[in-house]
Write a structure and sequence with these properties.
Blueprint (H helix, E strand, L loop, with lengths): L6 H13 L3 H8 L3 H16 L5 H25 L3 H11 L1 H12 L23
Helix pairs in contact: 4-5, 4-6
């Protein structure tokens, strides 16, 4: 943990990371033929990367979200300017709601841009909707 960071510094870091977060979307806007062109040229890769909605994957996602929420609470306790208020707000939202909303976001939706699940510099990937 970097408990020596202030909330202002942490927010600056997140804003800078967030600037590149939609790079997948921007890449496909410039790709010849867009998403369909990318699928035509790299179909095997796209098919392998789509998150299959199996019971095992849903259970795995639930575990990741639950652990991620607990980790975020720990970070808030150590780094927030007002840890008690920040943790209270997070707990008011609730772990169960975060888990359910994340699972709903992972379900494929026809006609919407689908972002490939990917790793970032943070564990919770909630910045791109």
């Amino acid at each position: 943990m970097h408990s020596d960071l202030t909330e202002k510094q942490a927010m600056l870091i997140m804003r800078q990371l967030g600037r590149l977060h939609a790079a997948t979307y921007l890449f496909l806007q410039e790709y010849d033929g867009g998403l369909e062109g990318f699928k035509a040229n790299h179909g095997d890769m796209v098919r392998d990367l789509i998150w299959p909605q199996t019971d095992a994957n849903v259970a795995r996602l639930t575990g990741w979200c639950s652990a991620g929420f607990d980790n975020a609470l720990d970070v808030a306790r150590e780094c927030a300017d007002d840890p008690e208020a920040t943790v209270a707000k997070m707990e008011a939202v609730g772990k169960e709601r975060i888990v359910e909303e994340t699972k709903a976001q992972m379900a494929p939706k026809q006609g919407e841009f689908l972002c490939v699940c990917h790793n970032d510099a943070w564990k919770n990937n909630f910045m791109f909707k």
